[in-house]
Amino acid sequence: MSRILVVEDEPYLADLVATALRYEGFETAVAETGAVAMALVRSFDPDLIVLDVMLPDILGTEVCHRIRLAGSQVPVVFLTARDATEDKVGGFTVGGDDYVTKPFSLEELTARIRAVLRRTDRSAPESARVAFADLVVDDDTYEVFRAGRRIDLTPTEFKLLRFLLGNAGKVMSKRQILDHVWEYDFGGNDGVVQTYISYLRRKVDAFDPPLIHTMPRIGYVLRLPVER
């Protein structure tokens, strides 16, 4: 389990990011200031830092600079509302590994984090592909293949499939799917889950055997058919 330190002074956003990352299987800690972040680098020993640039006490770029001077090579993904080229260059100059501009989707941030962890961990597999049966999903390119044939999915369909794939064999309730795929702030009803499951089935389960199954009154599961 990789440890992620989230450094963000907006409590709602910090909690949202940390919760999403925990949902993805990461261990998380949160800091609202640069000073606390630098202390947690020592005590929490993170595998990656998600670092807001505009902090109340010190710029995130300065936090990264000081961490590097102290000898730490922990990967850093900057978060910022500033998207000027010189700001991004400044972030990379002090030792940042990636740069995500606000507003961002939790899906994008998680994908960036996984990509940085793969690049910076020599023991990590080079491939970004996750497979189940003849279904293959590439987290870096957002490509999906079934029986060797490419399937075109919308961003929401991809995120729904990736969530089911990440929990293959486990029954996911409509509420769990809503909380993950629609990022915790969806105001509609859970009928949208059934609608998108049907969209996904038309594309992914156009092949045999079907992989997406309904568990009545419970939810949905990605698995091979049960032999009778």
TrEMBL record:
Query: Where does the record place the OmpR/PhoB-type domain?
Result: 127-224
GO MF annotation, one = phosphorelay response regulator activity
Q: Which Pfam families match?
A: Response_reg, Trans_reg_C
Tell me which Gene Ontology terms the entry assigns under biological process: regulation of DNA-templated transcription
Q: Which residues carry this modification: 4-aspartylphosphate?
A: D52
Q: Which Gene3D superfamilies match?
A: 3.40.50.2300, 6.10.250.690, Winged helix-like DNA-binding domain superfamily/Winged helix DNA-binding domain
Any transmembrane segments, and where? none
Name the UniProt record assigns to this protein: Two-component system OmpR family response regulator
Could you read off the lineage of the organism from its UniProt record? Bacteria, Bacillati, Actinomycetota, Actinomycetes, Streptosporangiales
